[in-house]
Amino acid sequence: MIVNLVVLLACQLAGEVAARGLGLPVPGPVIGMALLFAALIMRPALAERIAPTTSALLAHLSLLFVPAGVGVVGHLDTLGQHGVALIAALLLSTVAAIMAGVYVFLLVARLTGASE
């Protein structure tokens, strides 16, 4: 299992090094995931080897959300005082982001001459 974790972390490290070293606009973990995908395609035995480790990691993925839950519980008084404003800001910013995406899509479609 340790070797499998080293393989996963080495791919992430390689992605981070590539992203920062080459100044790429893609996050390092995404590049690392692409490298891992390429390695799994080139060596199917590697996929079989790391499958139990990755399954165990995915089974316990919810543990990553514990710090966020603790933060929410720790600031319940703030949520009680400003809950309505926080929900309104969350909803409005979500709608604004979606609308911005729509307008950018329409602008790009118009600039590229894509038909409706």
List key phrases describing it.
single chain; 116 residues; 0% strand; LrgA/CidA; transmembrane helix
Question: How does this structure look, described?
Answer:
The model has no long low-confidence stretch (mean pLDDT 90). The protein has helices spanning 2-22, 28-42, 44-59, 66-74, 76-112. The longest helix is centred in the last third of the chain and has 37 residues, at 76-112. Helices cover 84% and strands 0% of the residues. With 116 residues, the protein is mainly alpha-helical. It is found in: Cell membrane. Its main location: membrane. InterPro entries: LrgA/CidA. This is CidA/LrgA family protein.
Task: Tell me the domain tally.
Answer: 2
Shape: flat
Give the termini separation: 52 Å
From N to C, what is the helix and strand string? Answer: HHHHH
Report the oligomer. single chain
The fraction of residues assigned to DSSP E strands is: under 5%
Radius of gyration: 21 Å
Assign the structural class, choosing from mainly alpha, mainly beta, alpha/beta, alpha+beta, or little secondary structure: mainly alpha
Helix percent reads over 70%
**Low-pLDDT residue spans:** none
- Average pLDDT number: 90
